[in-house]
Amino acid sequence: MPDAGLNRWAQPTVILVATDLSDLDRLMPFALQQAHESSARIILLHVLSAGAGFAPDAVGMPSYDPAGAIEFVIKTLEPWRIRARGQDIACDAVVREGFPAQQIVTAARQFRADRLLLGTRSRSKVSKLLLGSVAEQVLRSVNLPVITVGPEAHLEVSGDARQRVVLHATTLRETSSPSAALACQIAVRQKAKLVLLHVLPPVAEMQRDRLPTGLDSTAMRELRILAAETSAADSCCTEVDARIAHGHPAIEILATSVELGADLIVLGSTHRSAFHNLTHDRTVVRVLAHARCPVLTLLDEVEEPVAAAMEQDKIFL
């Protein structure tokens, strides 16, 4: 990925916020913060799905009233648009009708968005996580950073000057390099510490297979190389830490983010088929649904099958 693309993604000029209206209170504080830091314009988008304009008439028969539906959406978005403009942030509200995922992707292209914000949701039981079909389709369809804000994410308002933390969970495959570089640039602009995390299988499993673990693992050597390369790629990014964890990828990513008080989680670039597999086995879904901070994902442009995971370490994520 050329530096120009990374710079644009790290410091966006247009942020598209796709909302179902119920998640505005969760999405907009992060959108305003990011827009303020990068002097970006916010596009607030709501998509009316097919049939949303139907309402019962006086005798209970459905009648099509798209103007009424659009008016309701505009009234709901208007307070946030006013709040943004009160902070000298350009903000416009857009209402579209059709298939939500398709309209979101189309709007991202039309407005030349550099970043997309989406809300995710989860059910009460861990076994029944729900990313949402719209979010999942969008994540697989756009080649730009997508920041998802789950129901447990909240913007901390603190008076102290603590150092911010960007946590990049990497697969250590070659395709992870663009997202590592993006994570580094974001960390630079936020004056944040960058932590590179790689998750290996449980220690007992690796010891049974006579594989080196923890600091002695092949993955740790690769991670240190990536940390050095990432730091060297931008002289301002001076603090890059490398961490190895053992266990379930989603659990370890979430636990590390809580331990560090991460302000952003960046998931490594993933090939389309690999992203599908991760979504299917709930790794990505768990992180997106339960993270206490926003999660940035970046879809890899590579169309060739990705290289197999490092056999000597049985790399998970």
UniProtKB/TrEMBL annotation:
SUPFAM superfamilies per record: Adenine nucleotide alpha hydrolases-like
Entry-linked CDD domains: USP-like
Domain (UspA): residue spans on this chain: 15-149, 167-296
Gene3D superfamilies referenced in this protein's UniProt entry, alphabetically: 3.40.50.12370, HUPs
Stated family: Belongs to the universal stress protein A family.
UniProt name for this protein: Universal stress protein
Protein source organism: Telmatobacter sp. DSM 110680
